[in-house]
Specification:
- The chain has one helix spanning about 235, and strands spanning about 5-15, 30-40, 50-55, 60-65, 70-75, 85-95, 105, 115, 125-130, 140-145, 155-165, 170-185, 190-195, 205, 210-215, 220-230, 240-245, 245, 255, 265-270, 280-290.
- Strands 4-12-11-6-9-8 form a six-stranded mixed β-sheet, with no helix packed on it.
- It is rod-shaped, with a radius of gyration of 39 Å.
- By secondary structure, the protein is mainly β.
Length: about 300
């Protein structure tokens, strides 16, 4: 039985004989023996449990301003005894990168068993642990909620599953671990743009007045990269578009402007006696500058 635990006693006997070199008067004392008992003991050996995070994929992906659920599964070895139980510990959580700190990490419990923070672990390297009933496996999720308006990744994360057997002396344990990391993909927030109406006498040049504003993320990671004035190309052909006094003809119904040129665009009818209207749309372009690794 490959899983035998216990002991057996064996008696070892040593036999000797004295070979006479000549005649003897008593052959009954030519042999002797001695015995001793030895004990062979097979102690129980606990097998490491299985652990799998995020279906075995190290990288967990989440968009900025969103949360993500990470699946975690752990089980005792198929040859475990009835006295074995599991503990799980997740390590390396930087709570300073989560919305609300500790509130930004929400692991699912198991029946009456709940996760507790490991005493003494720091906010930038926090650990949490859970102890399951004997024989139970874990199949749950870790919800991570990264800080709003931040794309800082969470690296160096690990879940350690440990099988314990306290019924033997000394108590036995064996562990397995799975590492993972969370990539938070930077997302540019929706900006706002207002194009103001303008009017004047027939044939005169009219200035284009555009106001643009970044979205809610104003920590310096987002910037305005430019503006576009859009319209019907056929109608726009009847007008002269100038930026700082230099002609800039629309292409495909679009006039592109840098942030510095947003107040420098004028429109003049080619027909000096033109009276009527030209409908244009204003668009603002922004960019998010990632602070670390990206997947999109």
């Amino acid at each position: 039985d490959a899983h035998f635990v216990g002991s057996i006693d064996l008696e070892i006997t040593l036999n000797t004989v004295d070979v006479a070199s000549d005649g003897e008067f008593n052959n009954g004392n030519d042999t002797a023996s001695a015995s001793d008992v030895i004990t062979l003991n097979w102690a129980p050996v606990i097998n490491p449990p299985s652990i799998e995070v995020n279906n075995g994929v190290d990288q967990v992906r989440v968009k900025e301003d969103h949360s993500v659920d990470v699946q975690v599964k752990a089980a005792l070895n198929s040859n475990s005894s009835a006295d074995e139980y599991l503990t799980l510990t997740v390590k390396g959580i930087d709570l300073t990168k989560l919305q609300g700190g500790e509130a930004g990490f929400d692991p699912s419990g198991h029946g009456s068993a709940n996760w507790v923070r490991v005493t003494g672990t720091s906010n930038n390297n926090a650990s949490f642990t859970i102890t399951l009933p004997k024989g139970d496996s874990y199949d749950g999720t870790f919800r991570f909620d990264p800080k709003d308006q931040s794309d800082l990744d969470l690296t160096g994360l690990s879940v350690v599953a440990t099988a314990h057997d306290d019924s033997v002396v000394p108590p036995q344990s064996a562990s397995s671990s799975d590492n993972f990391f969370i990539t938070v993909d930077a997302v540019a927030d929706e900006p706002s743009v207002i194009g103001h109406d303008n009017s004047g006498a027939e044939g005169v040049s009219l200035a284009i007045d555009i106001d643009g504003l970044l979205g809610v993320d104003r920590d310096g990671s987002e910037s305005i990269t430019g503006y576009q004035v859009l319209g019907n190309q056929g109608q726009m052909n009847d007008f002269v578009f100038k930026v700082n006094g230099v002609v800039r003809a629309p292409v495909g119904g679009v006039v592109n402007l840098s942030p510095a040129e947003v107040d420098a665009l004028t429109v003049t009818p080619k027909d000096s006696s033109f009276e009527g209207s030209l409908n244009l749309n204003a668009r603002i372009l922004t960019k998010e500058t990632p602070s670390d690794g990206e997947f999109d």
